[in-house]
Amino acid sequence: xxxxxxxxxxxxxxxxxxxxxxxxxxxxxxxxxxxxxxxxxxxxxxxxxxxxxxxxxxxxxxxxxxxxxxxxxxxxxxxxxxxxxxxxxxxxxxxxxxxxxxxxxxxxxxxxxxxxxxxxxxxxxxxxxxxxxxxxxxxxxxxxxxxxxxxxxxxxxxxxxxxxxxxxxxxxx
Length: 173
Description:
Blueprint: H1 2-26, H2 29-46, H3 55-73, H4 96-114, H5 118-129, H6 134-141, H7 145-172
Helix pairs in contact: 1-2, 1-3, 2-3, 3-6, 5-6, 5-7, 6-7
């Protein structure tokens, strides 16, 4: 019974973060929901091996491996718009123009991230959107810390180039 109550509290605490992480990587609500179920099923099988302070990075690693397993089963993966991050609060006290400008900027950033190679996309999502440390990100992805840093650096470099190109293109018009 203790294992079940522990899983329930872990689920309540971390499910939204795991869902957003998977949703941002796979680009589909239904697939993300299925992967969340698979993640917590796998977590249930092994939860007693992990202490509370290590659960979140471990859950993200389990989620990452569930996603990789799914991608191996599929012939190809199609990324679509990420609607989860498009939902902005209506009562934040800002005018409609500010909300629209923030949403457009956020949409643009998500599109840029979506165009990165898979490893780079995951590194950016883990560190910049979910605020994991470099070490936690490396552990979640199952790579060395130095390799993770290289992947993240290249991703950020690519995003910077895309932003600069877009700014040059906007100045022409």
